[in-house]
Amino acid sequence: MRIKKNIAVSSTGFVFNPTTGDSYTINQVGQEILGYLDKNKSLDEITSLMITAYDIDGPGFEKYFFDFISMLRQFELLEEENEN
Amino acid sequence: MKTKITIAVTGLNNTDNPGPGVPVIRGIRESDVFETRILGLAYENLEPGIYMPGMVDKTYRVPYPSEGSDVLVNRILEIHKKDPIDVLIPNFDAELYAFMRSENILKEAGIKTFLPTLEQFEERHKTNLPDFGEKYDLDVPFSKTITRIDEIATLKEEFDYPVMVKGKFYDAYLAYNEEQVRMNYNKISAKWGLPVIIQEFIKGTEVNVVALGDGRGNTIGAVPMRKQFITDKGKAWSGITLDDQKMLDLTYRIIRATKWRGGMEVELVKSHKNKFYIIEINPRIPAWVYLAVGAGQNLPEALVKLALGMAVTPYVDYQVGKMFIRYSYDLIIDLNVFEKLSTLGEL
Could you identify which of A66, B57, B300, B332 might form a hypothetical disulfide with B24, taking C-beta atoms 3.0 to 4.6 angstroms apart as the criterion? Predict the structure, then answer.
């Protein structure tokens, strides 16, 4: 699960999809998660990193994580498994 | 050294429903090849492009095409006699017919154009779009032309509401029921005449491509755009260039198949299943062409080169994520300036 290759994410959290022309802003935590996804980290690895860095437990984080992922999917920002 | 030429341009109505004249002039003014004298051809005394600083060097009033093609062309020839024109760039659908029909007369007089052929113009016409789609194997929404108000009652047999109600040249409205179709039919037919086109409504995102064909099947340039802000007249107030190979491939295909000659705007709807439907093909450069210039493709300049028979290297690239934002601005002019154009027909 990775962000599509052509999606540009700036250091200020500005996300631009050049295929649709849509743009979004994400906060620092979102940027951090995108960074982990880009490094191909697994859910367990991301959860472990996030619960160490922030005051949240595993199940709590996973709930927000899946919300975030479904939003990325809805906005067609994710490289789906069956895509080349 | 730049080549000195004189170019006559229509479409100076830089209003909330802008003509392409001003952006075409801006592109030409930025040319590294031409040093241009611009003659503005205005249908109305209050077209803003007449008065905008740095746009036209001289303006002439011209009669509306509805007064007769010959009347319009004769006026152009009259202007040409005292102020010779090298290239004429018409920018309205409604005037194209007159200029296409008179292409040879203009050419003999020394005025060059680069327009679609009458056949190309007709076959992509809104009224002929379903046949066009079938002929070139392109996805177009189902549509039907109507010429009588009593035909509206029978539409429910062929269409699901909502439907698009369109004028033959301009205007398009979404109608959710028979009553709204009737209202828009009256509005459109009073303004643009008949027929009125009823088109299946495709839900999705509207995206457009500006392109230029060399008349031999080659695409000289093409830039896709998505409208980001749309006015109540359905015009783009802001837009952004896209990186969408499907849109480009579709445009190349249309230009190759039709051997399109001149500027073109392909209006598409991208459905939620990522399928593209052609909703219109406009036979001229659109009003947002300056976005293409800003993104690296000076299509107005390339069109002038084609008109002059110069070799043109096709553009292969453009900057993705370039945006345009229109704005309104009050120009202050003295009454005597307006008076001069009103009384003498030139400024």
Answer: B300
What pLDDT was estimated at residue B207? Answer: 95
CB-based contact, A84 to chain B, within 8 Å: no
Convert B196-235 to b/e letters by CB count within 10 Å (16 or more is b): bbbbbbbebeebbbbbbbbbeeebbbbbbbbbbeeeeeeb
Confidence tier at B46 by pLDDT (50, 70, 90):
very high
Q: Which residue of A has its CA nearest to B228?
A: A21
Residue B321 to residue A18, Cβ atoms within 8 A: yes
ipTM of the complex model = 0.75
Chain A's closest residue to B245, CA to CA, is A19
Residue A82: predicted pLDDT = 56
The model's pLDDT over B274-289, given as tens digits with 9 standing for 90+, comes to 899 999 999 999 999 9
